[in-house]
Amino acid sequence: MPQALTLEEALARGLDQISHIGYVTDALSRDDVVETLRKAQIVVDPTLVVTRYATRPRTTPLASYQPCAEWMPRELVDIWSAFGAASEDAADAEASFERALATVRALHEAGVPIVAGSDQGLPGCTLLLELELYVRAGLTPLEAISTATLAPARVMGLEGELGSIAPGMRADLILVEGNPLEDIHALRNLRWVIRDGVVLEPMALRRLADLSPSHLTTGK
């Protein structure tokens, strides 16, 4: 969103996608824009994970939201651990986060297209928290997964090439242990990645990159 424009002004000038749910939540405090977004089929990329980072109490360990923090570089974890709400602002910050969830819920129920964006955060797992937050907002696990697969493919006009599993589609896949349609957190149980026909084992790649819990404890 351009800093000099309100949401309404940006839409009037042809904006067709909004990144960061805060812009929509702020507009809702002035007017009900959900129907306007639905009619125009404006795509919304909520980046709820950034809102969660900003509103989490700084006293709460980052790993409680992002388990993968244990094998991320210490410098990166320190940056995001310092990002959050002070203790005296915790209640207001949590209320702000709940408003963001409610906004995503309202957009989804109205049929506004939602696509998942990871924005900043911890590489390789920020998007997983984003999908988990969509489920918390009221999407089913399948609907949440679709925001990162079929929905963006449709937005880009590429649904005949990617975004779903079918003969002739681009075969980039992840294999997880468990059923994410029953529990979205199963997406964190990553076992294999297939990209361009090459099978990759994530834990082996982490070891090669020296990304592991021991990386943090030894200060390597």
Key phrases:
three-stranded antiparallel β-sheet; disordered C terminus; 220 residues; two-stranded parallel sheet; TIM Barrel; single chain; globular; mainly alpha
Can you describe what's shown?
- By secondary structure, this protein is mainly alpha-helical.
- It has a single domain (7-162), classed as TIM Barrel.
- It has eleven helices and five strands; from the N terminus they run αβααβααααααβββαα.
- It has a three-stranded antiparallel beta sheet with strand order 3-4-5.
- Strand 4 and strand 5 form a beta hairpin.
- Helix 2 packs across helix 6 and helix 4 packs antiparallel against helix 6.
- The radius of gyration is 19 Å and the shape is globular.
- It starts with 6 loop residues before the first helix and ends with a helix.
SSE blueprint:
Layout: H1 7-12, E1 17-19, H2 21-28, H3 34-40, E2 43-45, H4 48-55, H5 74-81, H6 90-110, H7 126-137, H8 141-146, H9 150-155, E3 173-176, E4 190-195, E5 198-200, H10 202-208, H11 213-218
Parallel strand pairs: 1-2
Antiparallel strand pairs: 3-4, 4-5
Helix pairs in contact: 2-6, 4-6, 6-7
